[in-house]
Amino acid sequence: MSYLKFDKNLMINLEQSLPKEMLRTNQAGAYHCTTVVDCNTRKQHGLLVIPIPELDNTNHVLLSSMDVSVIQHGASFNLGLHRYQGGVYSPNGHKYIREFDCESVPRTTYRVGGVILTKEKMFISHENRILIRYTLVEAHSPTTLRFRPMLAFREVNQLVMANNNLDPSCPEVANGVSCCLYKGYPNLYMQFNHKPEWHYEPNWYNGFEYIKDMERGVPYVEDLWVPGYFEIPIKKGESIIFSAGISEISPRSLSKMYEKEISTRTCRSSFFNCLKNAAKQFYLRDKDGMFMLSGYPWGKVLARNTFMSLPGNTIAIDHRADFEAIMATAAKALQNYMETGRTDHRIHGIDLPDIPLWCIWALQQYSKAYGSDDARREYLPLAGEIIEYLLDNRHPNFQVQPDGLVRSIGTDTPVSWMNASLYGKPVVPRTGYLVEFNALWYNALMFAAQLMEGQDAYTSLKERVIATAESLKPAFISTFLNDYGYLFDYVNDNYADPSVRPNMAVAIGLDYSPLDRRQRKSVLDVVTRELLTPKGLRTLSPKSFGYRPSYVGSPEDRELALHNGSARPWLFGFYADAYLRVFGHSGVSYIDRMLIGYEDEMTQGCIGSLSQLYDGNPPFSGRGAISHATNVAGILRTITTLKKFNL
Question: Helix, strand, or coil here: 574?
Fold first, then answer.
């Protein structure tokens, strides 16, 4: 039985099926994303969504959807589904669905009278091309399939309205046609492995309604261009393969391409395999190097997310070479910033003060997985350069104080991962001494000292590192540990923020913590009691002022809720690290049970992945980006850690 399988009863119930989304990427920036019933509910949904560097740094929806109809005895049965203005669903093709599974590729089985038809979608790796294979499993009469493509040709966060500015021409190519609606876009080639009959009937289809955008309080209605339709007769047992890409392809190669691509897939036959597939979808390789996207459908390459998610999304799934490739690209950008002060055009936020600390943390995970000798050989020069840069106070917003603590100013611009802004100001104005910055700094110093062990060239720097760490440890405790047994979130001058936030979980989950075991347990108890949910740690305790558990409403409402109550799975990774350090083997069964909450998400939201955030109160609904790199990485790290305990 398939791990990700949904039956007829769920699929025909739109209240249950529409919230379930599926995502496929090509590891080069392009993706296909829609709901399991193929009804687009976001403007970012589409069959072929690709980056077009010649236009901008974002993705563009070329092919929005494809309606397929089964024709027998002159009667047409449309298998498509769309929501139009006024909440009208048409043509209600979901009522023909008998089954959907997503173990290797998304596969939908339809039944129309005596006809049984399957549809399988395959995104080609490192190429802007999607293949869809239709197989006629059963039919008692001559059958024809009609294909009606719906085109958008727009930036992924915009909408298109009916206009006269497009180019309606559709020149024929081998077994298909090509279209390019607007200047600056590439040609879209739509081809089949069998020769179709092309009917040119250009027209606008108006009033598509995207309910997820409606819920978010942003524009949600658009028109799509339909240039015409294809018709191909199909026999029982026969397969028709449709290709949509930005280059012409030989129709004869489609079957071989499909089979070759499917042979490389890891079946989503378990919780771990689902997350492994999700992790690889964040990879992005192009002429500039290899990167880690922060998430889908609107994620970018962010420096902090890259280093935070890198170990879980590579090392935890045994992709060492990918860790090294992504680290090489990110480290180059970081080193360039340290040397010149110039930011990177691809990796956003490389100038933020905690980026060097997260880089060191990622190197530490590499060292734990592959040994100190390999880490020293590969990354000691980088680690030494970062530590010396920070110790010399060359970062404009990372200032090491005489007692070893570090101070960053975040009153006007957010400096930490809690970076929500409203009306030009941080929603959570964390400034001064931030608890996770200082904990990461102590951890970085101690790990650097470990790497420098026995390295004569680093003797002088190692002495500075150890002296700073020895001074920092008591200063951290006296500054952040309060009389209630938990850590202040930040301290600025005479103000110590008492809000119970999850940043202290980072402080107790690191390999090197300024806190002893008893102090870690005290903090862990507070985190467990006030922040822990089945979907991660809340960003704010329900007992704290300003708690907003639900990430819903207008853009302003959602920005206020972003870091004031919503739960984040990636934080559970640090919570698990802390719990296992405090309780050892006796804590394994508890952490293992807590993972059930994340496994439940494999059939919710974006199936096989984890959302950006979850509501802080039951039923802990997923919100934001449908697939998020740091969350997938955090849970993968935890699963890997548990495996080591169980050896």
Answer: helix
Report the phi/psi class of residue 608: left, alpha or beta, with left for phi > 0 and alpha for psi in -120 to 50: left
- Report residue 524 as tokens: 């862990």
Distance CA 229, CA 78 (A): 13
190 token code pair: 């739509």
Cα–Cα dist 178/151, whole Å: 12
575 vs 598: CA distance, rounded Å: 14
Total-model pTM: 0.95
Cα separation, 136 vs 127, in Å, equals 28
Which position has the token pair 């004569």?
A: 456
Neighbours of 30 (CB within 10 A): 27
Element (H, E) at 596: helix 596-599
Give the amino acid at 172. Answer: E
Three-class DSSP labels, 517-549? HHHHHHHHHHHHHHCEECCEEECCCCCCCCCCC
Stretch 89-105: mean pLDDT, rounded? 94
Instruction: Report CA 443 to chain centroid distance, whole Å.
Output: 27
- Can you tell me the distance from the alpha carbon of 503 to that of 516, in angstroms, rounded to the nearest whole number? 17
For residue range 69-89, what is the model confidence (pLDDT) as tens digits? 999 999 999 999 999 999 999
Place of tokens 């869809």: 132
- 47: part of which helix (H) or strand (E)? strand 46-51
Give 120-177 as a DSSP string.
EEEEPTTSSEEEEEEEEEE-SS-EEEEEEEEEEEEETT------S-S-----EETTEE
**Which 3 state secondary structure label does DSSP give 183?**
coil
* Cα–Cα dist 600/147, whole Å: 36
Q: Is 29 left (phi over 0), alpha (psi -120 to 50) or beta?
A: left
Q: Are 123 and 32 spatial neighbours (Cβ–Cβ below 8 Å)?
A: yes
Model confidence pLDDT, tens digit, residues 314-372? 999 999 999 999 999 999 999 999 999 999 999 999 999 999 999 999 999 999 999 99
| Torsions phi, psi for 430 (to 5 deg) | -75, 120
Residue 279's contacts (CB-CB under 8 Å, 6 or more residues apart) are: 312, 313, 314, 316, 317, 629, 632, 633, 636
Residues sharing a CB contact under 8 Å with residue 303, sequence separation 6 or more, in sequence order: 330, 333, 334, 344, 347, 348, 349, 350, 352, 355
438 near 353, Cβ under 8 Å? no
Prior bond of 619 cis (ω within 30°): yes
- Cβ of 526: how many Cβ atoms within 10 Å? 17
Type of residue numbered 284: L
Amino acid at 75: A
